[in-house]
Design a protein that fits this description.
Blueprint (H helix, E strand, L loop, with lengths): L1 H13 L14 E3 L2 E3 L1 H9 L3 H4 L7 H21 L6 H27 L4 H10 L5 E13 L2 H12 L4 H8 L3 H4 L4 E6 L5 H7 L11 E3 L2 E14 L2 H29 L8 H6 L16 H16 L1
Antiparallel strand pairs: 1-2, 3-4, 3-6, 5-6
Helix pairs in contact: 1-4, 6-11
C-alpha cells in the first residue's frame, strides 16, 4: 500500500521533470552527464505533500529519496531518447496541462486581489447575521406529524418544493390540534420538551426545519418560528465569521470575475449544431416500424365513414 501511494506522488513529479543541474561541481546523484546536487534534491523533496515526506523519515531518508529520483530520471531520459516528447498525443496533453495551470494561477492571483476581507466587513456580516450566533434558551415551534415513511416522503418533497410549512401542516399533519393553527405548538424552554425533540430544536436557527424525527406517535418535522437567547460576542466568533464571509465573497467574486471576463470576448453558440451533437457517440435514429397498425386504423376509419353514409 505504501509503495502504491508513493508511486502516485512520484508519477506526479514526472510531469515536471528535473531541472538540469550544473554539469560541474558536487553532486549526490550522477546519471551519465546529468548531475543532481544536494540543493536539487532538497528542492524536489520540498515539492512533495507532507504525507509523502513521511516515507523518507529517518537516517536513510535522503538515500531512499535519491533512489526514487533515479527511477524517475532514467524513465524520463529513456522516454526522451525514444521520442515520446515528439508525439502528437503528448503535445496535446502538455497543452491541456498548461491551460489548466494558467487558469489556476490567473484565478488564484485575481481572486486574492479581489477577495480581501476588512474588519468593517466582518462587523457588518456579524450585525446582519446575529441569529446565527445566538445560543437559544427559548424556542417557538411548529410541527408536522405523519404516521409512516410514505407520508414523511410526501411532506419532505412538498417542503423541498418551497411550499409553506403552515399550509403543509394543515393539509398533511395527523396532529389535528396543531394542524388547525398551521402546526404551531407553542413556546418552550430547555427541559420542557421530549429529549429527542429538544436536542434538535435547540440546534436549529430561526426559520430552519428539521429532518424527519421518528417518535412513538409518528414521524415529526419541526420548524423554529421564533427564538430567544444570548448572542455570542463579536470577538468570540470573528474567526468563524472570517471563514464564512471569505467563502461567500470568493463565490460572488468568482461569479463576477467570470461574467466580466466573458463580456470581453465575442461568444457565439450554434444551438442548431449543438442539437445534432452527441457526447456519447452517434445518436440512435429510431427506424420506422414495420407494423401495419397505421394502415389498419386507416381502413377502419374508412369503413366507419362508409357505414355512416
Amino acid at each position: 500500500m505504501k509503495k502504491a501511494v508513493l508511486m502516485i506522488f512520484l508519477c506526479s513529479l514526472l510531469i515536471f521533470g528535473c531541472k538540469k543541474a550544473d554539469l560541474g561541481g558536487d553532486y549526490v546523484v550522477k546519471i551519465d552527464n546529468q548531475r543532481i546536487s544536494e540543493k536539487d534534491l532538497k528542492k524536489e523533496f520540498d515539492t512533495l505533500p507532507d504525507m509523502a515526506k513521511q516515507f523518507f523519515a529517518g537516517p536513510e531518508g535522503a538515500e531512499k529519496f535519491a533512489e526514487e529520483l533515479i527511477k524517475k530520471e532514467v524513465l524520463y531520459l529513456e522516454a526522451l531518447k525514444k521520442g515520446y516528447d515528439k508525439k502528437e498525443d503528448f503535445a496535446r496533453k502538455m497543452e491541456e496541462f498548461k491551460k489548466i495551470n494558467l487558469i489556476n494561477q490567473f484565478l488564484e492571483e485575481e481572486m486574492k486581489k479581489l477577495s480581501q476581507i476588512t474588519d468593517a466587513e466582518l462587523k457588518e456580516y456579524y450585525e446582519k447575521h446575529k441569529d446565527e450566533f445566538m445560543t437559544s434558551t427559548q424556542v417557538r415551534l411548529s410541527q408536522i406529524v405523519v404516521k409512516d415513511e410514505q407520508g414523511a416522503r410526501k411532506v419532505f418533497e412538498s417542503l423541498q418544493r418551497g411550499e409553506d410549512f403552515a399550509k403543509v401542516a394543515a393539509a398533511m399533519s395527523i396532529d389535528k390540534n396543531s394542524a388547525k393553527s398551521g402546526g404551531d405548538i407553542g413556546t418552550f424552554k430547555k427541559g420542557e420538551l421530549n429529549k429527542d425533540l429538544e436536542n434538535i430544536a435547540f440546534r436549529l436557527k430561526k426559520g430552519e426545519v428539521s429532518n424527519p424525527i421518528p417518535l412513538k406517535d409518528g414521524i415529526h418535522f419541526i420548524k423554529v418560528t421564533d427564538a430567544k437567547g444570548t448572542v455570542q460576542e463579536f470577538d468570540k466568533v470573528k474567526a468563524f465569521i472570517g471563514q464564512k464571509a471569505m467563502a461567500d465573497k470568493q463565490r460572488t467574486t468568482f461569479e463576477k470575475l467570470l461574467e466580466d471576463t466573458k463580456k470581453k470576448y465575442k461568444i457565439e453558440i450554434n444551438k442548431e449544431a449543438l442539437k445534432k451533437a452527441s457526447l456519447f457517440g452517434t445518436p440512435q435514429v429510431q427506424q420506422p416500424s414495420d407494423s401495419k397498425e397505421p394502415d389498419q386504423e386507416k381502413a377502419k376509419a374508412e369503413k366507419d365513414k362508409q357505414e355512416k353514409k
